[in-house]
Amino acid sequence: MKLMATVLSACLLASNSASTPAQAINPGSGEAFQVKKNVLITDTTGARFSDQNIEDLKLWEDGSEQKITSLSSNAGPLRLVIVIDDSGSMTSQRANVTAVGKFIVQNLEPNAQVKILRFPSPARTRVVNEWTSDKPELMNLFDERILVGGGGSPIYDGVWTALDQIKDAKTQPDEKRFAVILISDCMEGGSRHRRDELLDELSRTNIPVFTVMLADQYDRFPNLQALMKQFERFAHDSALASGGSAYFPRKGDNAKLPLEETLKDLTAELWSQFVLTYTPTNQIRDGNQRNLRMEVANSFNNIKRVARIKETYVGAQSR
């Protein structure tokens, strides 16, 4: 199947309910932590391969080669829950939320099924629609009038509700894969579920969470950067626990770039057909960014293979 032209220049992923890659260790537990990364492998025209030998992949982290311990396939159409934070702290981000949501939907596979979930406050979390692949309908839902929330931002509860929606869909017999995208400033407040409880659940469920963190507080209030780093930590820890990723399209210099550039890796992850797992040789829990590089050997008939992977992630951090 050919990737759309936009996907070739802006390329994310989901988890396969039938795959069984090694579970990521809770990043703050003190155990050796594992990393799961989504991999999109295509030929030079953008056509995806359905098979890949683990022996033909090589991965480096900060220049050190890593041993890939497992490679699992993502088969079946994507079921995606998009969780939108409509709390009061997101008021200045309404236009960005709409733009990000529409960009994600526009670049999904045609047969991807989407649910949208919104939480303006702890008491008003709601599922907006049933599973649908109707892109015009979904685009219209991002334009709906928003009820401004108050009384807290139940980030953890919103993600937990998304997991519940996916658990129900998993009972259906057809083959599919799943993912959650959280669009939020991650300024948690008011959740019934605890942070560590959610991270443990994400490690068990094998459902990747991709956070698109939107916050202009970085630029408007420089003295809040230390506080924002604490909220940002959830985006990184949930990614590490679940096999997802964190994106910051409106932070710093990213704010000057189009979404096609800042979210290109997210698009690729949603299209990716493999998940690899490895245990980093660097187990220092410093919470620093790490850089990845991947190579893939050509096919036996010398057809060139191209591997796409998000080339950065933030490592575990001691509690």
Structure, explained:
The chain has two domains: 5-75 and 271-314, no CATH class; 78-270, Rossmann fold, CATH 3.40.50.410. By secondary structure, the chain is of the alpha/beta class. The protein contains nine helices and 15 strands. Strand 9 (177-184), helix 5 (195-205) and strand 10 (209-213) form a beta-alpha-beta unit. The strands form three sheets. Strands 1, 6, 7, 8, 9, 10 and 11 form a seven-stranded mixed β-sheet that branches. The longest helix is centred in the last third of the chain and has 18 residues, at 225-242. Helix 5 packs parallel to helix 7 (225-242). The chain is 27% helix and 24% strand. 45% of the residues are buried. It is globular, with a radius of gyration of 19 Å.
Q: In CATH, what is the homologous superfamily of the largest domain? A: von Willebrand factor, type A domain
Mean pLDDT: 87
- The fraction of residues in strands falls at 15-25%
Number of folding domains?
2
pLDDT < 50 stretches: 1-25
Question: Major beta sheet, specifics?
Answer: 7 strands, mixed
CATH topology of the largest domain: Rossmann fold
Distance between the termini: 44 Å
Shape: globular
Structural class: alpha/beta
- Helix tally equals 9
